[in-house]
From TrEMBL:
Cofactor(s) required, per the database record: Zn(2+)
Gene Ontology biological-process entries: proteolysis
Cofactor note: Binds 1 zinc ion per subunit.
An MF annotation (GO) of this entry: zinc ion binding
Record family assignment: Belongs to the peptidase M1 family.
Organism (species): Paramecium primaurelia
Protein name stated in the entry: Peptidase M1 leukotriene A4 hydrolase/aminopeptidase C-terminal domain-containing protein
The keyword Electron transport belongs to this UniProt entry's keyword annotation: no
CDD domains: M1_LTA4H
Keyword terms: Hydrolase, Metal-binding, Metalloprotease, Protease, Zinc
List of catalytic residues: 320, 407
Pfam family, one: Peptidase_M1
Length: 644
């Protein structure tokens, strides 16, 4: 093992990405241009990609790219049109998990420093393209035209573009998208162009009837940050270069809820430094969007669950803004270093939230975050590498390792470092870190070396003491599964109060506690603590308690879906049958993957028939990656035949 590690370290100087089949070390993709003709009714895309590769080895004969269920028609040299031989190498049991290899035989041997320009003609459809959610027009609010949205992270971009699908490689991205229906508006990662900068690669019948959109991004990005939406959507300015995009019916309400976007941007820049990407646009997607948010540059996606009506859900928007620095400018090199994106991002998010909502509120967020990370660790197993900040994703789809663990343990590590280094110098460290690694993909080893050097240089008197403390915990914190080796201080009366109220409910066995009305003043994060206490002690929660809580707080069909989700978890754990219709309504209206995975797991255990019936009902509403995840969960609970 040590020998192998040394070999890798000596050869590449950094950790390789085990989740790509591309030969990205010998040859690196520099630029990807795509030309797509969208057929949203047929759920089909006619595509051509044009790429520039830089050769990094001395005898390059082939280029291997990642693909997932793509139909490859031809590969040819951009300049001459000469067709190149290609093979699809089927990866056996990895084929449906992580995809296959498109292996392209070059026309000669290439050497270090040369560039290769290639075009690939291909097509894709809704069956194979697991990065895409195709909604029929009936699934949209206005029901006029269909809707398309993508989710490439972690490694789903290979299901829409043949490329080096690894965060180790950053590319310039440009696109031409053609649509047949002029009512369909398109947005992609990058700036929308209005002057037809890119010549068309193909001839189209009836070209004048097509609407053409073009996009360009002048900063390199990893493939997982490529995103698209197409549908009847409009954008509305929220001031100072910030915009909200949504279906027309919702745009005014959403823009109102997100009217503080310019202020969030200002606060973030004051803390971490200038924003370099251009206009900040946030799309509020239809309900089947599987995540809370996704940080594509210039085109953040967010779930409608963040729109609560009182701005209490907009922490997600602040999180996605923070990714403009951590994740998008400095990027984790592979999925084992995902915490380099997310841990830093949560740290920045909570820095700004503590200014806006106070430190006690942020402590509640940290408590809630840690509790969902711990739930994931219990599901993975406390000694499983997925319960560490550095998951081993060899031969796995890295999506399987996705959980709050890297977010929260990463946040806790940075908070601990901040207490060692002190608040103002730590802010300087973060700014220097961004400056030093901007536009690069890095791993935790590079971060670690940079941190130690920075402390040596900037904390002269205390530096040795601080370095010793860091060295004591670093390896354990990053590599070992389970809870972090040091617990950060999150004590707050808000937590104690919510726990005491929940305990009083349980002890009352159906009597209403004296302080019951406190709950009505709670913000969502304090409600979440209250409900988490009941979840942790669900075996002691009697049906009479559930009935009274529901009467008092009206939690079934609750409008804030974060709170609703925890209440429904409790309903399924306690087997509170009277609340089941609320769960049914929730899983039919909310497409967020992390919620659905937990709820379907509990449904499978305790309400087998409903699990299968409700999944069948909602399959076409959920995003393909969610359908796959739920199918996997339900395999654990085979369908019971009910004789009527
Ligand atoms: Zn994030």
């Amino acid at each position: 093992m040590i020998y192998l590690f040394l070999c890798i370290a000596l050869t590449f100087g950094a950790e390789v990405d085990v989740n790509t089949f591309s030969n990205y070390i010998e040859v690196s993709q520099e630029h990807v241009h795509i030309e797509w003709l969208l057929d949203l009714d047929g759920q089909y895309i006619n595509a051509t990609s044009q790429s520039i590769f830089r050769v990094n080895s001395n005898k390059l004969k082939q280029i291997d790219l990642d693909i997932y269920q793509l139909n490859i028609i031809a590969v040819y040299m951009t300049s001459t049109g000469n067709v190149l031989k290609h093979n699809i190498i089927n990866k056996g049991d990895q084929s449906l998990l992580q995809g296959d290899v498109l292996s392209i035989q070059l026309d000669r041997v290439y050497t270090r420093g040369e560039y290769i320009n290639l075009n690939i003609k291909y097509n894709l459809d809704s069956k194979g393209a697991r990065a895409l959610g195709f909604l029929t027009k009936e699934q949209t609010y206005s029901k006029t035209v269909p809707y398309l949205f993508s989710q490439c992270e972690d490694n789903n971009c290979r299901s829409i573009i043949p490329l080096q699908d690894t965060p180790s490689i950053k590319i310039y991205f440009t696109a031409t998208v053609l649509v047949k229906d002029p009512r369909i508006n398109v947005f992609m990662t990058g700036n929308k162009l209005y002057n037809m900068k890119f010549k068309l690669l193909n001839n189209y019948e009836n070209l004048q009837a097509l609407t053409i959109y073009q996009f360009e991004l002048n900063i390199k990005i990893p493939a997982y940050l490529i995103g698209i939406i197409a549908g009847e959507v409009v954008e509305k300015s929220t001031g100072n270069g910030t915009y909200v995009i949504a279906e027309p019916h919702f745009i005014d309400d959403y823009a109102q809820e997100l009217s503080d976007l310019p202020m969030y941007m200002k606060e973030m820049q004051e803390y971490i430094g200038p924003y370099i990407w251009g206009d900040y646009k946030i799309v509020i997607l239809p309900a089947s969007f599987p995540f809370g948010g996704m940080e594509h540059p210039l085109l953040t996606f967010a779930s409608p669950t963040i729109i609560v009506g009182d701005k209490s859900g907009v922490g997600t928007a602040i999180h996605e803004i923070a990714h403009s620095w951590v994740g998008n400018t400095v990027t984790g090199r592979n999925w084992a270093n995902f915490w380099i994106n997310e841990g830093f991002c949560v740290f920045l998010e909570r820095k700004i939230l503590s200014k806006l909502n106070g430190l006690d509120s942020v402590k509640l967020d940290a408590i809630n975050g840690n509790s969902s990370a711990y739930t994931s660790m219990q599901t993975f197993g406390l000694d499983n590498s997925f319960s560490s900040m550095h998951p081993n994703t060899t031969n796995r789809n890295p999506d399987e390792a996705t959980s709050r663990v890297p977010y929260e343990k990463g946040y806790q590590l940075l908070t601990y470092l901040e207490t060692l280094i002190q608040e103002d110098p730590f802010q300087k460290f973060l700014r220097d870190y961004i400056e030093n690694f901007k536009f690069q993909s890095i791993d935790e080893d590079q971060l670690y070396q940079f941190l130690l050097n920075w402390v040596r240089k900037n904390k002269q008197e205390d530096s040795q003491k601080i370095i010793t403390e860091i060295q004591k915990v670093w390896k354990k914190w990053v590599y070992e599964p389970g809870l972090a080796p040091i617990t950060i201080d999150v004590t707050t009366p808000l937590f104690t109060n919510a726990n005491n109220l929940a305990k009083a409910w349980i002890d009352g066995k159906g009597e209403i506690p004296e302080q019951a009305n406190d709950f009505l003043q709670y913000k969502p994060n304090q409600k979440s603590v209250f409900l988490q206490y009941l979840i942790d002690n669900y075996k002691d929660v009697e049906t009479a308690v559930m009935t009274k809580i529901d009467e008092q707080y009206k939690l079934t069909f609750y409008k804030d879906q974060k709170t609703g989700y925890k209440w429904y978890r409790l309903i399924l754990l306690v087997k509170y049958d009277q609340g089941l219709e609320g769960v049914h309504d929730f899983v039919s209206k909310v497409g967020v993957s992390s919620y659905l995975k937990v709820l379907y797991d509990l449904l499978g255990q305790n309400y087998n028939k409903q699990a299968y019936d409700w999944f069948d009902e909602n399959k076409t509403f959920y995003h393909p990656v969610v359908v796959q995840a739920i199918e996997k969960i339900l395999q654990k609970y085979p369908k019971k035949l009910i004789v009527e």
